[in-house]
Task: structure prediction
Amino acid sequence: MTTPTLEEKCTQLQLMSAPAWLAAWGARHPEQHAAVRAALEALVDHELARRTERAIAARIQAAKFVQVQTADTFDFEYNASTRKLRHRYLNLCATDLVAEGVGALFVGDPGLGTTHLARALGYAQCQRGHRVLFTTLAALVNRLGAAEATKSLHHALKTFQHPGVLVIDEVGYVALRQPESHLLFQVISLRHDRQKPTVITTNRIPSEWNQVFTDNAVAHAILDRLAERAEVFHLEGKSYRETHRRPAPKAPPP
Result:
């Protein structure tokens, strides 16, 4: 990729008359042209970097991660399963999920890091300039159920349809009733049709999803759409929180 010129950077900042002005000024002051151009380029680079940082911060806040977690802070050396997935996961983090239309499915019991990995993947996509939304499954179906009751379902569906990457946490912790299963199916189906990546964390292996969704056909349809364009990661072992629990502080002697 070629480095953009000063004129192109000015256009990025919507300084539309700057390129013509620079050319005219340089023709009148050739002896100062190089020094002034270098100073202007430093100023423009600073402003572009500032705007990029602000835009990334805004996307991270809009993603509603609850807690920001990155791949750098994940302990891949924790056990055999996390060591095994490290290379493949980091490659996925370095991928533009929106451009490739690739999602992810993290399967594992609580405390193994599925949520951390999903958040970190979403965070990486915020860095790439994509809109990301993080939600638990319970929050998603509650929002859609309330919208359906007030006849605003179409608008609510757009909330989960529009983000470049949608992260749905805690699938499988609570069994869904048939209406809730159908609401989730609408979200997954809309995103699948538009080739928008969805990232899922679940404590249930795919063969157990019929225990999560009341309607077996809906369970199969959701899983089929997710699995078509998703990397699947299995985490196994003891809970990280359990094995790294801090001892309670001792009470001071009386």
About this structure: Strands lie at 103-107, 132-136, 165-171, 198-202, 230-234. The chain has two domains: 6-59, 64-238. The first helix runs from residue 6 to 12.
